Amino acid sequence: MDTVLSGIRSTGNLHLGNYFGALRNFIRMQDENRCFFFIADIHSLTTHPDPKDLHGNVKNVLVDYLAAGIDPGKSVIYIQSDVPETIELYLYLNMHAYMGELAKTTSFKEKARKQPENVNAGLLTYPTLMAADILIHNADKVPVGKDQEQHLEMTRKFARRFNNFYGVEFFKEPVAYNFGEELVKIPGLDGSGKMGKSEGNAIYLADSPKEIEKKVKRALTDSGPTQPNSVKPDYIENLFTIMRVVSTPEVVEHYENKWNACDIRYGDLKKQLAEDIIKVTSPIRERILEIEKDDAYLRKVTREGAEKARESASKTIAAVREIVGFKKF
Ligand code: TYM
């Protein structure tokens, strides 16, 4: 049985990108694997969130996990800061991670551009903390979206480097996983790159049908193609990309044909798209509204999750301490 691990930062509600890039696969994998799904609250500190918001954001992710179908009877669900063994492993991995390679990471360069007043060491070492999350349970597979590919490459590099340095075959080299398919990247509704929690271009799992209709209606379009079979501009291609994950192949084909024949009505496309998104999100939203009221249940899930995660993590840390040469007197 393979070990699966993944996490999502506690920086807001989860959106369609999180769902199709990661969360949907968590649920698909939980029957046949030993699964750990956690909430990356320590990672979220790299952007200095207000302490008043942190707990609420952790709760949002936890509720979204459960509402989307992660079953605490099958998977271990935990909060990163409840497992201090991760932080200890992060420290050891940092001794074998180098300034140059960390500073070259795409996510670091992006964040440094976005928050030039706060280029902290946590941002620089974000990939080693992520490697620690994964290696603490010696995971085989890590279901993530396309934007995490480089972090997984770095995790494998850190695992290999640790094994080589200490002359052991201890850590496995985990892979970014999407059932053998290309990793997913869901674009935003604003015609720009990817859907993101902080980009103002997201549809959230917790959005009401009305909000979703409004957001889809507002998506950028134009007056339509003037040449048959022309290449779509990015903002139109993005709508089709979202359609490909939420709608049936027949629906996608219908609108592709309309596009190719210069006969597309964006109003119809948007109506269909909103309807199909709502089909995915509304059962999740209904469960969110139930589960978020049940603090006793959330407490139980996180307490039991922390216990199981620490049981696994403490075994890894005991072995790592020995490998690095710490001995008891
Ligand atoms: P985060 O919180 O940015 O995103 C969580 C997951 O959602 C995926 N995702 C997307 N997938 C497709 N299209 C999008 N527009 C989109 N936006 C987000 C991400 O790829 C990710 O899988 N570093 C991680 C959190 C983390 C982690 C880990 C993940 C910390 N430690 C260990 C796996 C294993 C992150 O920032 O995810």
In words, what does this structure look like?
The structure is a single chain. The chain has 329 residues and is mainly α. It contains 14 helices and five strands. Helix 8 crosses helix 9. The mean pLDDT is 96. The chain binds tryptophanyl-5'AMP. Residues 5-9, 17-18, 21-22, 40, 43, 130, 133-134, 142, 144-145, 147-148, 151, 184-186, 194-196 line the site of tryptophanyl-5'AMP.
List keywords for this structure.
329 residues; three-stranded parallel β-sheet; two-stranded parallel ribbon; 14 helices; 5 strands; binds tryptophanyl-5'AMP
List all distinct small molecules, including ions and cofactors, that are bound in this structure.
tryptophanyl-5'AMP
| β-strand amount | 5-15%
Output the strand order for the largest sheet: 1-2-3
SSE order: EHEHHEHHHHHEHEHHHHH
Shape by Cα distribution: globular
Our count of helices gives 14
Structural class: mainly alpha
Mean pLDDT over the residues: 96
- The first-to-last residue Cα distance is 37 Å
Share of helix, binned:
55-70%
Spans of at least 5 consecutive residues with low confidence: none
The Rg value, from CA coordinates, equals 21 Å
Largest sheet: 3 strands, parallel
> What's the total number of strands?
5
